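Table S2 (text version). Query chain:
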Amino acid sequence: MHISLSLLQPLSDCNILHFGSADANELFISNLFGIFDSGKLNFAEGFGINTNLFETNVINLAAVVAVVISFVGKNLTALLEDRKKTILGNLQEASQRAAEAQERLNEAKAQLEFAKKKAQQIRKEGVLRASQEVNNCVSQHEERLSKLEEFKQETVQFYQQKAFKQAYIYVISRIMSRVKERLNKGLDSTYHVVVNNFYVSRFTEYNP
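Corresponding structure-token output:
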């Protein structure tokens, strides 16, 4: 028996890739068996064996594919659909995790920038505070030096006045002694008392 390849054209018209469709499966099977019922097969002597091995293999393969598609198509479609949902779910989860990671990264960058600004602010405040402390120390030191200089001047002035007073008293006492000596030689007792009282009063009134 010889079957022309043109007889398989109805099989090629059936889109076997859409095996998830029940209508396509039924159409494929009906086309397959329609080949045998259409009278296009030329039987020379009843039901014989096809001597064309290639065409026989094609028919056998088409029959097997039709059966597989008919019984396995729906389950395979469901399996692929589940696989598709799983892949989409994984992609969505990965996208969500990537977004969360990016958000955490942005937060970390913001915290780092805030920490840098805070560190710069603390450093500036530290430098300013140190400068103020140095200025305060210098001012206090200058103030202490000024007070020390003032105290020194007061001390020097005090001892100068004391020395001058002592010298003045010594000179006055020497003068008084000389005066007394001269008065004792040339004056009586009454005049001597008057002169002494005069010098004593002048001495007590003196305030250097």
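Notes on Table S2: The chain has four helices and no strands. The mean pLDDT is 73.
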